[in-house]
Structure formats: C-alpha cells, structure tokens
Amino acid sequence: MTQMIKARAGKITEEMEMVALQEGVTPEFVRDGVAAGRIVIPKNKNRNRSKICGIGGGLDIKINGLMGTSSDRDDMEMEVRKIQAMEEEGASAFMDLSMGDHINEMRKLSLTMSNIAVGCVPVYQASVEAVEKRGLMVNMTSDDLFSVIEQQCEEGMDFMAVHSALNMDLLKILKKTGRTADIVSRGGSLMTGWMFHNDKENPLYAEFDRLLKILKATDTVLSIGDAIRPGANADSLDQSHLRGLMVAGELTKRALEAGVQVMVEGPGHVPLNHIPSAMLLQKRLCYDVPYYILGFLATDVAPGYDNITGAIGGAFAGMHGADFLCYLTPAEHLGLPTEEDVRIGVRTTKIAAQAANVLKHGTAWDRDLAMAKARVARNDEEQIRLAINQANLTAAFAKSPSHGCAVCRDTRCPADVAAEFFGLA
Amino acid sequence: MTQMIKARAGKITEEMEMVALQEGVTPEFVRDGVAAGRIVIPKNKNRNRSKICGIGGGLDIKINGLMGTSSDRDDMEMEVRKIQAMEEEGASAFMDLSMGDHINEMRKLSLTMSNIAVGCVPVYQASVEAVEKRGLMVNMTSDDLFSVIEQQCEEGMDFMAVHSALNMDLLKILKKTGRTADIVSRGGSLMTGWMFHNDKENPLYAEFDRLLKILKATDTVLSIGDAIRPGANADSLDQSHLRGLMVAGELTKRALEAGVQVMVEGPGHVPLNHIPSAMLLQKRLCYDVPYYILGFLATDVAPGYDNITGAIGGAFAGMHGADFLCYLTPAEHLGLPTEEDVRIGVRTTKIAAQAANVLKHGTAWDRDLAMAKARVARNDEEQIRLAINQANLTAAFAKSPSHGCAVCRDTRCPADVAAEFFGLA
C-alpha cells in the first residue's frame, strides 16, 4: 500500500499528518493531494527517518541537493560531509549520484547518515556495473537494470530518477529536427547510447509496468527523468522538449493508475520568457503531478555562477508552479562541487524557493514580514533568527554592532536624525 | 543644448552614434528614443570620456554600481579601487554616495579615475555640509541644496538622483495609511526630516524648475529619486508607492517638456508577483522614460545574499521593461561593502541583466547561443571568451583540463561513451 493508495482509501497516514503540520494545512488537504497525485511524500517503507516532507501543489517549494562519488574523485568521507552540510542548510532531500568504486557502500551511508529523503539514478549504477561485468555499458541487459532498481528500492531509496520518458520515436524526431545541444542528460545519454548500439527500445519505457511494480512494493516515488531536456536556452520548448513532456505525461498517467507516487523532472536551460508556458504545459500534460526542476538556468554564459542563474529561473518557475527545485552549485559547468559549493548551492536555492513561497502568503510571507519589522525595530537578534543564513548574519553584526539603519548600519547615518522628525519610525 | 533637444531638432550626435553601434541599432532609432525620452545618454558636457552608454527602451539593460566614503569608513583609496573594480567587471555607470570628510576630493577622483558614467545624490553632500556649517542638517537652506547641485553638475556629474518626488501630500498619505517600513530611502528620510522640522514643502519639489535649469545647462540626466519606495515586500504597491510614482510622473512630464533627460528610480523590495504591474504602472505613469531600479529584492530574509535576491527580481523586472539595474552587493543590510563585495555585486547583476537581455534576441542571445555551441564542441577557449567571469573559468578549467562533458568535466563520463553511438554530437 503506497501513500497514494492509502489516501485514495480515505486514510490519513502519519506522514500526511506530519506534512500537514509543517505546511499549516489540514491533513485532509494533504490526503486529497496525495490521492490525486498533486502531492508526493517520498518515504520508502524500508527506511525509517523522522524528517518527512511533502512536495507538490499547495505546499511550499522544497529543495533537493546532490552528492556522489565519481571516478575522478572517489572520496566517501567528503560525500558524507556534503550530506551533513545539505541537511544543515535546509535541503529537504538529496540524490546520491555515485559512480565511483563503492556505489553500494556509499548508498548505505547516504541512507543511514541522513534524516531527509534520499533519491538516486539507477542507470548510473547499472552502467558502472555493466562496464565491470560485461566490458561495456552497452552490454547491460534489461534484467541488469531492473535488478539494480529493485536493490535500490529494497535498501530504502525514497525516490528515484528513472529515464523512462525516452523512446525511439523521440530520438528519431530529435535527429530530424536537430537542436543546439542534443542530449545533456547523463542518464538520457547513456540510454541513448544503449538504444542505438543495441537497436532496441529503451527498457525503462518498454517495460514500464515492471518498473511500476518494483517502485510500488516499497512506495518509492518515481521521478520521471528528463532524458531529452533542453541543455541550452536555444533548445527550450523545441519539438523534442515538448514531445519529451508528452511521453512523460503518458507514463505519469500509467503511474497514477497503478497507485505509484510520481513526479516529473524538467530542465535545465529555459529562458525567462518561456517559463510560464513551460510550466503550464508540464502541469497540463502531466496531470498536475509535482514538477521537479534543475534550474531553470536563465542564461548560458555564467559558468561559476550557475547557482545564481538557477535561482533566477527557479524563483520564477516556482511562482508558476514548480514544486521541487534541484539545487545548482557554483561548480556547475566547471567541475565537481566541494562541500562549500554544496552549502552555497542549498542556500542560493533556498532564496529562490523563498522568493516564490512568499507569494502564497503563508509561513514564508510571515517570515518576510517579521524580518521587515525586525529591521524597523533594529532588533538584531530577531533579524538573525529570521535570516536564511544565521551564522553569516551573526558574524556580520558582530563586526558592525551599530544600532543604526538596517541598510548599511552606519553609526552616524543622517537618516536616523531625520527619523526623529518624521515621528513615524 | 541637451542630447534630447538636439535629437528633437533631428540631429544625430556622436554619442547617439556610439550607442547605436554598441547596441546594433540604427542611429535614428537612438535619436528618436532620446527625443521621445525613452532613452537617456548620461554624458555631462563638462566631462570627457570615451565609454558612452545609452539606457532605455529597446537597448540592452545596463548596470550601475555604488561607492563612496562614509563617516564609518573614510578611505578614498579603497573607493578608487572599487571604481576600478566596477569598471573592470563591466558596470556602465556608478554613483558616488560619499558622505565622508572629503566629498569634493572624492568626487573629483570619481570623475577622473573612471571612464564610465558617474552619478551622485546631491542631498547627501548638502546634508553633510549643513551639519558642518549650520550645526544641524535641518538648518540646510534651499539655496545650500541648489548650490551643491550646481557645483556637482558643473564639475561633470553625468546623472544625479534628486529626491523631488516627495511632497507634503505624500507624507500625509503615508501617515494616514501606514506601512511596515515607512521610509527606507536615505535621501527621502533626510528630506522628510527637513520638511517636518521646518514645516516647509520639499524644495526639490517646490523649486523643480530651478533644478531643471541647472541640469539642463550641463545635460546632466535627472534620475528622480524614489524617496518613498517600499522597503519591505509587505509595502510594495501600497498607496504610498503608487502615489510616489504619480508624483514622479508629474515631474517627468515637466522634465521632458524642458528638454532635460530624465529617468525614474524605483524600489527596493517588490515580490515577484507584483513585478509585472509595478513595471507597467511605472512606464505608464512616467511617460515611458527609463526605469532605474534597486533590486527588486524578491525576499526580505536573505541578508548576506541580497546580490542574489536582487538578481532574481532584477532579471524579472528586466523582462518586464526595467532599463537600468543598480547592483546590490552581499554586504547589503550587513554593513559597508568591500572591494570584493563590489566585484560580486557587479557580476551578479550582470547575470540578471543577461537573463533579461537574451529575450531580445540580440547580442546577448547570440552570446548564450555561442556558449551552448562551445560546450557541445568542448571548446574551452571559446567558453572562457564568452563567460561572465573569464578569470574564474580559466582557473577552473586549469584545475580540470578534461575534454569531457561540459557539465562536470568528468574524464570518464559515460555520457561521452554513449555520444559515440548517438552520432549526433
């Protein structure tokens, strides 16, 4: 019984109650959202943890971080520190993208060292194992792939990016119509290579019912990977992007029918003026299930600052209905992120989420308002309590312990003098 | 003869030609924009410099930085380094906000050490001098204020924030209707104090023709200061905000009639869902003259990251027609910015401007597209050439000199393997 099936039976689970409490909504609202598929609660049956979050319509936007070993930097201790950093900074979930030498061990650490939702991308592990066992990634069998998925679900994975929304029809269209950056999804690229080499349909698409059955057994949330997402602003909303959404929609419907919790992943590179349409079409074509985006990156030319580029697009996407923002770090397009990059990534993405969440006039709005009042009252403690980064503000205030204006804390700010006459402050 | 008066006479000045060349538009387009007031070209008659920029409708969004001494940190050498940093990073203009002990000397340095447009806020200097000469800021006379304005214009100031859009009617309305953070504009607060203490109308409003005459003589662009701007999301688009815009509109019309180049300043704190209306009303009420904004800050709770908060709102405002973005640094709401803060501020604001500029499908779009192509081609040199921060990318690439995928530059990225089979890359 998944959360969705329980909700459809009218049951309010403990997890739904926890989500309702956090969000300031009724348990019935959460239940009805989960039943309809508008809300997902990533919580694997086999994994115990106390921090539960809901993602989707009517709830505050949540943030996902990323970590994982790779062949270029295979340091599990560093990755554990990243997990702790993400959780400390306020991520609601993270994905373990490990492709290093000890994927299973790293996953166990990810699941035991954290108290938030954990996701992964099974095709990563499957492709690494195919190279080990069969010499080449393209020698991977469909059974290899599903056996990895099953293992990961059984070990407690709360959600999983599966690149099912990729099929031969899509690739043929992409070949015919072309784009600037054909495929930038790593999982999508792997499966594309596999499909062309083997001249076979994508097993994650062809055997979608098999996938659903596995996910359902542990109530792992399906996150439909955006294999064919635009990787350049110039490719946004092109035919391939839209057709990819349509395939995701077709599969979303099947997941909903099967009682499997599902969300859909999105780009990537989307210019600001495309965002309203991109969001509308996604929600329309994918039955209003939660939308999980990477970015959107608002421009392509800011490597080193893609946390900011992503925050610009992410905030705007959030205003238009994005539910779950995957963070970007300053290392995006540069190399592998450090622990500090990870912290900056979560913080920046939190700002984007907050900018969209305030528009709902719930707790995020109250927090903004309380900050403004604390500034007017020149209440340093309250400002620190409300800040996105409390440590940073504490340090800054210690350096300039003035009770001057909250803008630049100048001790002899003439605005202070004037305020006396105004009699309003 | 101001640029505007020349444009109205059908003349295409050297400055208009330079703007046209930079922007890839015709000189006639620039001339007609200047004649109508949609475009300003800040260029004081008494100051020679080679870098000219146009600001306004149909042109790329420009960026303004800030610097200046204060009573808390009166270090002119540091401020000169900030000027150099801003210019290096690509600001089109900056404002000297000095309120330290050597305002005149600092201004001379600002004007001679830079090759971009310089602006200032005359009420700052006037209030410091009033304290020196007359004991209290509120003892400042109207003549004191206009004499500072005249001096600054004659010395070469290219544009000037003048807090004219503040009058007794506005303050009465603010007192009646209330808001969270009454007045957060420093200039607005100074003038409010002066008005209440002296029980007199704001001379910058009451003697507006006197102001126009001074500005016209040197073709200094009037930037109508937003004295009553919202300083909290909760105050955005309130009655005072809108009435402030209306007073700015009334004065804008008079400036246009007088042939004085004019732009209007704006907030500040504006939530994302207010931006389309805020921009539309500003342009509507202020005769489509350029809009110069500080922010907009999309949330109040991110002190230490207001460069990012401002980039989110700034990009969105840019999409809706903002023409000139004043940068925010990470020091906003914390203290006085360092040279490094200044660099980060310009870079972050450049990203916001680029995110909006790409939507025009001009040079900014071409740059985004070229970057995407360079990534596909794995052309490191070209990626560096196109990046917002070249030095940063050069350093990052030197650390991971891989020719792997442009996302994380993993040397053994399996996506590379797959790409061979795809045959598209």
Automatic annotation (TrEMBL), chains A, B:
<keyword id="KW-0949">S-adenosyl-L-methionine</keyword>
<dbReference type="Pfam" id="PF01964">
    <property type="entry name" value="ThiC_Rad_SAM"/>
</dbReference>
<protein>
    <recommendedName>
        <fullName>Phosphomethylpyrimidine synthase</fullName>
        <ecNumber>4.1.99.17</ecNumber>
    </recommendedName>
</protein>
<keyword id="KW-0456">Lyase</keyword>
<keyword id="KW-0479">Metal-binding</keyword>
<keyword id="KW-0004">4Fe-4S</keyword>
<dbReference type="InterPro" id="IPR002817">
    <property type="entry name" value="ThiC/BzaA/B"/>
</dbReference>
<dbReference type="InterPro" id="IPR016176">
    <property type="entry name" value="Cbl-dep_enz_cat"/>
</dbReference>
<keyword id="KW-0408">Iron</keyword>
<keyword id="KW-0411">Iron-sulfur</keyword>
<dbReference type="InterPro" id="IPR038521">
    <property type="entry name" value="ThiC/Bza_core_dom"/>
</dbReference>
<keyword id="KW-0862">Zinc</keyword>
